[in-house]
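Worked Example 4.2. Consider the chain below.
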Amino acid sequence: MLSMLPAPVKAWASQYAIWLKVAAALCVVVGGAAAGWQARSVLADRELANKDLILATLRASASKAYAESLSGARELEKQREINAQLLDRNRVQREQALRLHSVALSQEVLSYAQADTGRGCGLDPRGVQLHDQAAAGPSGVPEASGGASRSDGPAARAPAARIVAVVTENYTTYHAVAGQLADLQAWVRDVCEVSGRG
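Applying the procedure from the previous section yields the following structure tokens:
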């Protein structure tokens, strides 16, 4: 069909065919690039959506962990308050029981000691003095190099009621301090458990 056409038309048709081929090739290249760009855009959107999903999952996990730790901390604080209330109640009850026991024991001991009137107890004045100094603490105990003098007079005995009352008072004080120490040890254990060091 091209052979029937005159030469200038043939040349033009031939150039036109070349231009059409070039245009078609350009369309294929541009179309391929556009398709590649579109595919790359779709892949990037998918990757971005996956990253957003991972980020949302991590945020949800972090929020849940924070809420659980906050709940755990609140529960530990409530337990610590309950333990402190129980310790206070136990201390008050122990002190009341100790006071009642001490009063009852002191009355019984005093009635027993007063029944033994006229006779003294086995401590002479020097023994009473040493006892009083020992009860005063380390500053009240005389040095071993003879810092205290002995009485040369007749040995007046301390009344039994006084000795028994002092001993009873000392034991009562001991039990009160032992109770305070037990409370302190319980408090230290509680603090160590709450802080995670126990």
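The radius of gyration is 51 Å. Residues 144-152 have pLDDT under 50 and may be disordered. Compare this with Example 4.1 before moving on.
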